[in-house]
Design goal:
615 residues, EDS1 EP domain-containing protein, 53% helix, 2 domains, two-stranded antiparallel sheet, EDS1-like, Rossmann fold, eight-stranded mixed beta sheet
Length: 615
C-alpha cells in the first residue's frame, strides 16, 4: 500500500505538523516552535483568552488597511493582493489574531528563520492547532505577499492547521483563489469540533460561555478534565444557532433567492463575515478523510456536519464538540494509516440520499452518510456546485465574445488612422462629430460598452471565476480596449458639457469599466496604484483647458504644476507606446493649447521636440 498524499502534502508530513502543532500548547511562553529536517516547520501556540479572539463587538474583524504587514502604505507601493481588484474592496481579517501575529513579527527572529529557510531552499510549513492555526494562516499570507514575487524562483510555502477558527471574510478567500494561493492551505476539522465554528457567532450571543469554554479547552490541552457538560451544551447551542443563520443565508443566495425579505431579515440579524479559505479535510470518524475545496460547500458542511440528529443527543454531542478539538493526533493516526480519502468534487451531482442510485459513487455516498448530511444539506452542497459551474459557464460565454471585441477595436483603429491622415487626432474628430465615420465610431463604441458593462456587472456580483481578473489574455484585451475607447468616452463627456452638471470626468464621470480594467493591469504587472492612467490623458487636458481659459490673461501659474506633471507623464507614455503620436498633430486641441503656453515653459518641456516634429 503506497503512502497517503493530500494535495502536495504526504501523510508523514501531516503527522509531523500535527505533532508540533499540539506541542506548541505546552510552550505558551514561546511565540512559535521550529522543527527542521527536509522542511522547516514553524508552529504557533493557541491562545485561550477571549481578548485574543474578539477585540471588539460583534465579530472582531477589521479591514486589512489597518495592517502594514498585509497592506503596505504609500503611493509608490503596489496595492495588497488581499482585495477584490475591480471593486477595490479590501479583505477583512480577525483583528485579535492579526494583532498577535504582528506582535510575533515585531521581533526579528521569525523573519530571520524564514529568510534562512529561503536561502537554504527548504520548504516552509506554517502550522498550528486551535487559534495557533489562525496565526499560521496569517503567517502564510504574509510570506506570500512579501516573498513570492513574479519571476522570482521560490519554493511555495504550506499552511496546515488543525481545528483552526476562521480568519478572513469572503474577499479574503476570493483573493487567495485569484492569486492561485488557495492550494497552499490545508485545514483539518473533526466532525464535531466546535472551535472552527466559533467565529460564525457574534460575541454577544455567547456571553460568558466563550470564556468558560476557552478555559476548559486550555485545561484539556494539558490534561483530561470532566464535568463540562452544562457549559458545553449551552455554548454548542449558541454557536450552532448562529452557524445555522449564516449557512441558511448563504444557501439562499446560492439557490438564487431574490426575495427582498431575505435582505430585510439579514439587516436585523448580525451575520458573521468570516468564510472558509483553502482546502478543508473533514474527519467524520471511522478512519475517513473527506476533502473539500469549494468554500461555499465548506461553509455548509461546518454547520450541517455538526448538526444534532435529535435533541436527546445534545449533551453527548456538546461534550464531544470539546473533546474532538483535542483529538486530532489519535484520529489522524488511524486515518493516515487506513488511507481512506474521499474527494468531494462535482458537487452538483451529489446523491440526495443513501438510496439515490442515480448519483455519486459508493465512497462518496458513504462519506456523506458518515458526515450525517440530511437531504437539505446535500441540496445546499449541490447548489454550491451549481454556482461554481455557472461561474465557469459565464466565463466561457465572455471568452466567446473576445473576437467580437477585437473586431470592434479594429474598426476604431481604422477610424483613428483615417483621422490622423486629416492631421486631426481621432479624439478631436470624435469630439466634433461632423462626419459619417464619426457616427459609425460612436455605434461601435456603444456596442463595445454593452459587452464590457456586462462583464463588469458580473464581476461586481462575483458571477465569474475568481481568477478572471488576473488572466493575462483579458488584462491585455482590457488594456487595449481602455486605451482606444476611453478617449472617445471622454470626448463625448465634454462635448455634451456633462462636466458642468456632474463635475470633472475623473471625479464623477469615469465609468466602472475603465476603473476596473485599469486596476487589472496595475495588479497584474505589480504597478503602483494609479500609475496606468494613460487612457485618461484627455480628461486632464480638458480640465487644464477649462482652467486656462477662465484664468486671468497670462496666469499660467494656476496650472503650471499640473501641466508639468502631465507633460512628464505624456513623455513616458509616448516612449512606452501607451499613447500614440496623434496627440501632437497640428489639428489636435492639445497641440493648439500647448503652443499658446509661455515660451519659457515650452523651451524646457520634455515634449517640445515631438510637437515641433509634428507641426
Amino acid at each position: 500500500m503506497g503512502s497517503l498524499t493530500i494535495g502536495e502534502i504526504s501523510g508523514e508530513l501531516i503527522k509531523k505538523t500535527c505533532s508540533i502543532a499540539m506541542a506548541a500548547h505546552k510552550s505558551p511562553e514561546k511565540p512559535y516552535l521550529v522543527q527542521k529536517s527536509s522542511e522547516v516547520l514553524i508552529s504557533f501556540p493557541g491562545s485561550w483568552s477571549v481578548g485574543d479572539w474578539f477585540t471588539q463587538q460583534p465579530f472582531g474583524e477589521m479591514k486589512i488597511d489597518g495592517s502594514e504587514l498585509l497592506c503596505p502604505k504609500g503611493n509608490d507601493k503596489v496595492a495588497t493582493s488581499l482585495r477584490s481588484i475591480g471593486r477595490d474592496e479590501l479583505a477583512s481579517v480577525n483583528k485579535g489574531f492579526l494583532t498577535r501575529f504582528e506582535m510575533i513579527l515585531a521581533k526579528p527572529s521569525l523573519q530571520t528563520e524564514v529568510e534562512k529557510a529561503i536561502k537554504e531552499k527548504k520548504k516552509i510549513v506554517f502550522t498550528g492547532h486551535s487559534s495557533g492555526g489562525a496565526i499560521a494562516i496569517l503567517a502564510t499570507v504574509w510570506f506570500l505577499e512579501h516573498y513570492l514575487k513574479p519571476g522570482k524562483t521560490l519554493m511555495s510555502p504550506l499552511c496546515v492547521t488543525f481545528g483552526s477558527p476562521l480568519v478572513g471574510d469572503f474577499i479574503f478567500n476570493h483573493a487567495l483563489i485569484r492569486e492561485n494561493w488557495s492550494n497552499f492551505f490545508l485545514h483539518f476539522v473533526m466532525r464535531y469540533d466546535i472551535v472552527p465554528r466559533i467565529l460564525l457567532a457574534a460575541l454577544s450571543t455567547m456571553g460568558q460561555e466563550l470564556d468558560q469554554i476557552l478555559k476548559l479547552l486550555s485545561q484539556k490541552a494539558m490534561f483530561p478534565i470532566q464535568g463540562s457538560v452544562r457549559e458545553a451544551s449551552t455554548f454548542y447551542t449558541s454557536v450552532m444557532r448562529n452557524a445555522s443563520a449564516v449557512a441558511s443565508h448563504a444557501a439562499c443566495r446560492l439557490m438564487g433567492n431574490t426575495n427582498p425579505i431575505l435582505e430585510t431579515v439579514a439587516s436585523f440579524i448580525e451575520l458573521s463575515p468570516y468564510r472558509p479559505c483553502g482546502t478543508f479535510v473533514f474527519l467524520p470518524g471511522h478512519g475517513k478523510l473527506v476533502v473539500v475545496k469549494n468554500a461555499d460547500a465548506i461553509l455548509q458542511l461546518l454547520f450541517y456536519s455538526a448538526q444534532l440528529c435529535s435533541e436527546n443527543q445534545l449533551n453527548a454531542i456538546a461534550e464531544r464538540s470539546l473533546n474532538d478539538h483535542l483529538g486530532y493526533p489519535s484520529e489522524l493516526q488511524g486515518c493516515l494509516n487506513w488511507q481512506n480519502v474521499v474527494q468531494l468534487d462535482h458537487l452538483e451531482g451529489l446523491p440526495l440520499s443513501s438510496s439515490d442510485a442515480a448519483a455519486g459513487n459508493i465512497a462518496t455516498k458513504i462519506a456523506l452518510d458518515d458526515l450525517g448530511l440530511s437531504t437539505r444539506a446535500r441540496l445546499c452542497l449541490r447548489a454550491a456546485g451549481e454556482h461554481e459551474k455557472q461561474k465557469l459557464s459565464n466565463q466561457q460565454r465572455m471568452d466567446n465574445k473576445m473576437q467580437e471585441i477585437e473586431l470592434g477595436l479594429a474598426k476604431l483603429e481604422e477610424y483613428k488612422s483615417k483621422s490622423a491622415l486629416c492631421k486631426v487626432g481621432y479624439y478631436d474628430a470624435f469630439r466634433i462629430s461632423k462626419y459619417e465615420d464619426d457616427f459609425k465610431a460612436n455605434v461601435t463604441r456603444l456596442e463595445l460598452t454593452g459587452i464590457w458593462d456586462e462583464i463588469i456587472e458580473m464581476l461586481n456580483r462575483y458571477e465569474l471565476p475568481e481568477p478572471f481578473e488576473s488572466r493575462k489574455v483579458w488584462i491585455e484585451l482590457a488594456t487595449k480596449y481602455r486605451r482606444i475607447v476611453e478617449p472617445l468616452d471622454i470626448a463625448n463627456y465634454y462635448r455634451h458639457a456633462k462636466n458642468e452638471d456632474t463635475g470633472p470626468y475623473m471625479h464623477k464621470g469615469r465609468p466602472r469599466r475603465y476603473r476596473y480594467t485599469q486596476r487589472w493591469r496595475e495588479h497584474g504587472l505589480r504597478m503602483p496604484v494609479g500609475s496606468s492612467a494613460e487612457s485618461c490623458f484627455w480628461a486632464e487636458v480638458e480640465e487644464l483647458l477649462l482652467l486656462y481659459r477662465t484664468a486671468d490673461p497670462g496666469a499660467f501659474e494656476v496650472i503650471r504644476e499640473r501641466t508639468i506633471n502631465l507633460e512628464r507623464k505624456l513623455d513616458e507614455w509616448i516612449r512606452s507606446n501607451q499613447i500614440s503620436n496623434d496627440v501632437f498633430l497640428k489639428g489636435s486641441s492639445f497641440t493648439k493649447w500647448w503652443i499658446t503656453l509661455p515660451l519659457q515653459h515650452k523651451s524646457v518641456s520634455p515634449i517640445q521636440g515631438q510637437i515641433n516634429r509634428e507641426i
